Amino acid sequence: MSADLNFARLRSDGAASIRTRAAIPPTVLMSLLVVLVVVLWSLFPSVFTGYSPVNGDTGSKLDSPSLQHWFGTDYLGRDQYARVVYGTASSVTSALVAVAIGLVAGSAIGLASGFRGGWLDATLGRFVDVLLAIPGFLLAVVIVSSLGFQTINAAIATGVSAVAVFARLMRAEVIRVRRSTFVEASYLEGGNRLQALLTHVLPNAYRPVLVLAVLQFGTSILVIASLAFLGYGDPPPSSDWGLLVASGKTYVTAPWLVYAPALVIVATVLSINRISRWLRNPS
Amino acid sequence: MSSGYGRFALARAGQAAVVVLLAYVLTFLVISVLPGDAITNSLRDPQSGLSEADIQRIVSYYGLDQPVLVQLALSLGRFLTGELGFSLQSNLAVSQIVGDALPSTLTLASTALFIAVAFAVAIAYGAHYAPPRWAGILRCIPSFFLSVPNFVIGLVLIELFAFRLHSFTTTDPNSATATLFAAVTLAIPVSAPLAEVLIAGLDHESRQEYALVARSRGLTGAQLFARHLVKPSALPSVAMIALIVGELLGGSVITETIFGRDGIGTVVQKAVTGEDQPVLQAVVSLSAVVFVAVNLAADLLTPLLDPRVNVREAANA
Amino acid sequence: MPESHVPPLLAVDGLHVSYGRKEVVRDVGFRLDRGGSLALIGESGSGKSTIAKAVLRLLQPSEASVTGSVRLDGKEVLAVPERQFRPLRGRQLGFIPQDPGSALNPVRTIGAQAHEAAALTGERDPGARRRMILEALEQVGLPDPVRVFDSYPHQLSGGMLQRVLIALTVLPRPSLIVADEPTSALDVTVQKLILDLLGDLRKELDIGLLLITHDLAIAAERTETLVVLKDGAVQEQGPSAQVFAAPRTDYARELQADVPALNPGRYRSQRLDVALKEPRDVPQEFPQESATADRPVQVSVTGITKRFQTRGKEVRAVDGVSFAVERGRTHALVGESGSGKTTAVRLLLGLEQPDSGTIAVGGQSTAGLSRAGIRDVRRHLQLVYQNPFISLDPTWRVGRIVREPLDRFGVGTTADRADQVRDALQSVGLPADVVDRRPGQLSGGQRQRVAIARALVVRPDVVVLDEPTSALDVTVQAGILELLARLQRELGLAYVFVSHDLALVRQVADTVSVLRSGQVVEQGTVDQVFDQPRHPYTRALLDAIPGTTGLQSPTGTAPDIQETPKLAEASL
């Protein structure tokens, strides 16, 4: 449940092919719908629920799911659906922050490493080896413990632990493209290295990295939820998805408190994985 | 070949040692330089129950009154001689804490590794040789496994098998059955990428012309799989083994917490909440040692397993 | 073909194959007698390989649906369950694949895989099987069978691997061998040796041969019956000599006409000197080249040498190579893999620096030039790559690809550039609307035209053509070669033409250098080198051209290439 293995997964699929315009398969359509709902939840939570995520109705504690309370209520009588919906923004934003950090830092390292080669490649390569040597989740735990227990710090930690994977993929892609015949042809036409990098190498190398970013978005949701589950995110009354599962697990008689947010996490990540697979291999 | 291989092995081992040292330095810097806290904060915590003399002793042991680089040199020097320092919470030697927790985690992780490999091979074989309908379903399983957080897997297994079916009790987390379920929890997210790589390997190899030629020689599907396809499709996963071990170490933090096991993961968990930095530093560095060692083993094994790999080229890679 | 009581070895009737909804083989039928030989010939997409795989039942039922009838010795084999068909595999039906480099499992030794073939003879004793394998390896002319037995595939050359595959295929004494382009991945001299070997073994062991090939010359020379395919359907079939000498269908005629080895005058007639006799072919806007005017030397290469270090050993990839090309002329560099022709081109283009020797373009030496100077030289020296599938950026549109040299060299205004791109595309015979397409939407021939347009757009003096047609089908090749001849005629271009195909070189070049192991072994005008080859290697190369032995060209005169003694050593 960390970024480290995503590199092997992507490489095993080979380079991403140029997307051709084809009909979108129904499972992908459904996945896009799920992601759309999640995005809308995080942008306009109050549109989707009339309940407050913070103040509960003390008369209805630990109610099982019903038409009034789709996901039931918790030990303070708060609507669990409302807590999930209001927790979405923080869960999604932090995953985005994590991906952005990994993508930007990792791509920069991989690009420099793969394009410049030589001593720079050797130095950056060793740095990436070191990042990779510390198991991803442990690295995230160490960083978040050093920065302090907040969701934003969990996001930063998750992002840093994914830098190595982005760097390795970007480097591999850049080297693949850099050696291709059409780049050599561009040099022959009087192009310089910077022009080749910007006009040929990047446009041909970025796709697989973008696919990794989508895949990594799902992984980040899982890692951040795990950190929140361990209590390394924002404390209650915030309602990060991982935290909801963690606080729900104490109430053995009310399993919906665990299953409802868990199901939301699974549906979201599954949809993102499906979309990423479709982008890799559109069929 | 032998002298070439010797040189290759030596070069790789040298790189591995450098990586371990740098990983130690990186961890140290993250723990002590990043904002948030230095060791002294937790020492001054009135709840720590340490006397002023204790504090002075610890401060001088870690060189806390000196610049960070001196602390780093001190700490790194001790690490190289095998000294891991003392816990700030319990005053016990870190080596003892780790030593006590290690057997439990080793049992858990090795069982999980076994299960993960078994799952992955079964899924990959099925995805390739089962009737199309089943194969299609099996191909979706890795993606599903990768979408479920492993704390959810753990909670579901406990709910189902401990609370409803009474296969094990959470009060005895070290029983064989409880260990097995904990291992399954840990194994599921690890088996998925392995299965994906195996499936892709089998897909790739069975499309190669040599597979066609072998079939034209009258080999059955099973013979083709066993004699021709297994080895080349499994080779890419050898390179993954270190990542998998790392994943098992990271995943043990959550799995052990959920199943109430006392292991390395729990040690990490406690060290984080108690801001017990020497313990955290030691566990993370040792994980890096394990990762790098397994990676080195895989690297050294690859030229022996794959005749195409040229050690001379690999040494310079 | 008279039907007898004995059923033919292989009888195919009404064969249809579709991948999904796409039908790739339509109503194909042919007969092959015991010990006979038949060639399926066609270009890419003709369905020839699919037919071979359908006969061998190597198509996965999940991806291809096969209907019709395939009878082996009179017994229907298409419909029988796999369980009953499997015993025929290897024992009755042998298969030799296209690329020997990928036809053996890379992580197992040759010996381990040979045991699979030897087991088909029914021999159970491993020792006896090993002896059998070593004998077979020796039979196909491999010098050290024990070493080959213990080797991994990557340790052997392509020619050796194809011998291994032939040995393993004939080992169980099949009655039919299906060979799918068995030599198209090999050098021309090796190709001849392999085809000779296959022919000898066939006669000796009375094996029927179904040969799949794109090369009409090979097919006509090596088989008794020809089946010409196009778009999955049979165009024409009959005895080789008949189909070859007097093709009845247009397609077969076109195919026949486009093979350089069979038609020595095909492209020669379109070249400058010949064309000048008919001035109306030359458009007015280009200054007419006079055959007697003095021709400035555009490229002059003198004694260039390039050394590489591999595995501690020094290899001279190019060793003292010299040649010169005049305006409006074509000089060919000919050689097989490892001959140094690719390195010579890279040196000429400045992609590598020679260790010694000088290169002058347009009379100006490139040695010691500044960066700007080299840029200027490059503008006059353009390259067309071998493979248009990898030489064009797949993310760019054609217009931008052709415009790139103008942008890089800063030629003209934006409007000028658009005009020049349009002119260049027009001159290579592409419609104007291709500017908005990407390479992925074009065919191989169209892509190569784009590559040529791109080379021409900066008005170079010299164009280096690195095997410009070897990735293309023969009819597409014809179009490209005609285009190149016309452009040379119109623009007075000097060509450096790199090729392994001597039959082609003879027609398109004025002068030629034959390269072997980095050295020029023979040099001169095309007529000198081809008519009076002095070096044994040149003779071996000429001898290996398919279609030059035992065949009459349709006009009745055989290509005047002398019978030369075979090379004593196999150049594997």
Plain-language structure description:
Chain B: Pfam families: BPD_transp_1. Chain B: One of its GO terms (biological process) is transmembrane transport. Chain B: Belongs to the binding-protein-dependent transport system permease family. Chain B: It is a multi-pass membrane protein. Chain B: This is ABC transporter permease. Chain A: It is a multi-pass membrane protein. The complex is a heterotrimer of chains A (283), B (317) and C (572). Chain A is an all-alpha fold. Chain A has a single domain, classed as MetI-like fold (Orthogonal Bundle), CATH 1.10.3720.10. Chain A is 71% helix and 0% strand. Chain A is built from eleven helices and no strands. The two termini of chain A are 27 Å apart. By secondary structure, chain B is mainly α. Chain B has two domains: 2-80, no CATH class; 94-273, MetI-like fold (Orthogonal Bundle). Chain B has 14 helices and no strands. Chain B has helices at 2-33, 39-44, 52-62, 68-80, 94-129, 132-145, 150-164, 176-207, 209-216, 221-238, 241-259, 264-273, 277-305, 311-316. Chain B is flat and about 80 Å long. Among the domains of chain C are: 1-86 and 177-234, P-loop containing nucleotide triphosphate hydrolases (Rossmann fold, 3-Layer(aba) Sandwich), CATH 3.40.50; 93-173; 390-459, no CATH class. Chain C is built from 20 helices and 20 strands. In chain C, the strands form four sheets. A six-stranded mixed β-sheet of chain C has the order 6-7-8-3-9-10, with helices on both faces. In chain C, α4 (126-139) crosses α6, α14 (398-409) runs parallel beside α16 and α15 (414-427) crosses α16 (444-456). Chain C is globular and about 75 Å long. In chain C, 48% of the residues are buried.
